[in-house]
Write a structure and sequence with these properties.
With 234 residues, this protein is an alpha+beta fold. The protein has a 7-stranded antiparallel beta sheet. Helix 1 crosses helix 4. The longest helix has 13 residues.
Length: 234
């Protein structure tokens, strides 16, 4: 069996914030969607001590893609190693590490190193990283720098909004209604049309046309949506 060739990358950014703060932001991946531009949702599948297994949904070149990653946290060394799972056992995934170094005067340096198979296809997480390398990864590091340098007031920028509706029926039926968005135009009077193309299972880009005042159809402010697989949250 031929040995797989890997493409290695390294990105770093200096941050005017303590190394412990920067490491904490990288380690707390579940909160990434609140602050980091490319990240849509992170679901914790398994959290056992220093080992994590996460499913991540993120934007890459205007597409939403999803993958499962395993991470090993080392707070003492301020290092996080990750390995992305892939569909086939013979298909290697992306591996890499986040490393935070302490610099003089309370600043720090964040380095993201990764290795991805040179032969990766569009359907694998490796190709997501390759496509996102020059734009989305740089945006991710820039966001982390921006957040870390404002860590003292970070929670002041979070606004939580929640609405609750009681449904007299099983939770499975309520979820099924939300999941089957292709049926909404026939079930929701204010929605006249919906375009749905699900190229990747569970991640359909969509556009909806709600009915505005006087019965006129309004063009949506933006196209694109995200639906996780069954059992998750919409």
């Amino acid at each position: 069996m031929p040995e797989t060739a890997f493409h290695h990358t390294s990105h770093r950014v200096d941050i005017a914030a303590p190394a412990g703060v920067v490491y904490g932001l990288v380690a707390d991946a579940v909160r990434w969607p609140l602050f980091l531009t490319p990240t849509v949702h992170v679901e914790a599948l398994d959290l056992e001590g220093a080992d994590q297994r996460l499913r991540i949904w993120a934007l890459a070149c205007d597409d939403v893609t999803s993958w499962v990653t395993r991470r090993t946290l080392d707070p003492a060394a301020r290092r996080i190693d990750f390995r992305q799972e892939v569909p086939g056992p013979s298909e290697p995934g992306v591996t890499g590490s986040w490393v935070v170094e302490e610099l003089p005067e309370g600043s720090s340096r964040l380095t993201l190193r990764s290795a991805l198979p040179a032969s990766a296809t569009r359907t694998t997480p490796a190709s997501w990283l390759e496509r996102a390398e020059h734009d989305d990864l740089l945006a991710l590091l820039a966001d982390l720098k921006h957040l870390a340098e404002r860590w003292a007031t970070l929670d002041e920028h979070i606004v939580a909004v929640e609405e609750t509706l009681r449904v007299d029926g099983p939770a499975e039926l309520a979820y099924d209604f939300l999941y089957r968005i292709e049926n909404w135009p026939a079930q929701l009077p204010r929605l006249t049309r919906l375009d749905l193309v699900e190229e990747t299972p569970g991640i359909p880009p969509l556009g909806g046309w709600p009915r505005g005042g006087a019965g006129r159809e309004r063009t949506p402010p933006g196209g694109g949506g995200w639906v996780p697989p069954r059992g998750g949250r919409l």
